Amino acid sequence: MDPKMKREIILQHYQNPKNKGLIEDESYISVNMNNESCIDEVDLMVKIEKGKIVDAHFDGEACAICTSSTSIMLDTLIGKTIEEAKIIVENFGNMIDEREYDSDILEVAVVYDDVGRQPNRKKCALLGWWGMEKVIEEHEKTL
What is the pTM for the complete model shown? Predict the structure, then answer.
């Protein structure tokens, strides 16, 4: 993907993030994530039914990379099974850490493929994804 297209996608998800705004519903698993080295703080709410992510929301104060990455993550993972989500989350982390990954399963999230070259931005890109790992762990405790 060319750099201009990547920037446009990231900017669009920053300026108009999908699934932004929390709701009042106790059937969602909620986690709070913050990056102690900057301003990023994200609250995630994820609804899982029959092993599938059926809905998710986020809110918080975060930079463009963190906000857009979280928006893209939720857009990518809604409708996926927990097993599919785990594989996607693992591949995203591998991509950011510049390890081997499957770009096809990352869908639009592949726009962050060069963030690993900017160590100070890694946490920004990963914060929401780490939150999703926590959500999945919480869900699996209830099984």
Answer: 0.95
